[in-house]
Amino acid sequence: SEPKKMTGGVLLECPSGCGATALAYETARYVTSIDPSIKFINVSCTSLVHKEVGGSEKALHQLFVAVRQAAPCILLLESIETIAAVRGHDNTTEGTMDRVLSTLLVELDGVESQGGSMAPFAVIGTTHNRNWVDPALQRPGRLGAVLSLGLPDTSTRKAIIH
């Protein structure tokens, strides 16, 4: 059958504890209930940051190798601002974080299957503030759709508790 086209992704923005990760998990659960062949990969972006020069870029590349092999899949990148902060604010002496962002952009633009066509693949990134995430990541084809979740109002909080 035809592979499902899932390229691109969404950026979930919300204050800490308001459910971005839970929403991502529920989305993945729903999608995999419709098509059990779709896998879900969850990564905390802090786990991709390494102190040795080039280590973070290598870890990110290895992640995308695994994603290509696992396709079709949904990749959740939690706290994506850790590896995709706005360029020009990199306080590392080697410019590590700007290089990591460049690696991420290249990987997102080049996720191809063995046959050279785009692999069935979607990314969900979470952040507490979309302004912390480089604008290049927030364009169509990458994480172009932004969903902002706010704090629940009083009636919603009561419903959650009960």
TrEMBL record:
One short Pfam family name for this protein? Answer: AAA
Per the record, the domain of life is: Eukaryota
What InterPro entries is this protein classified in? Answer: AAA+_ATPase (IPR003593), AAA_ATPase_domain (IPR050168), ATPase_AAA_core (IPR003959), P-loop_NTPase (IPR027417)
Record keywords: Zinc-finger included? no
Which molecular function GO terms apply here? ATP binding; ATP hydrolysis activity
Gene Ontology CC entries for this record: cytoplasm
Establish whether keyword Magnesium is in the entry.
Answer: no
| The AAA+ ATPase domain, residue ranges | 6-153
SMART domains xref list: AAA (SM00382)
Keyword terms of this UniProt record: ATP-binding, Nucleotide-binding
Q: What is this protein called?
A: AAA+ ATPase domain-containing protein
The record lists the organism as Amphora coffeiformis
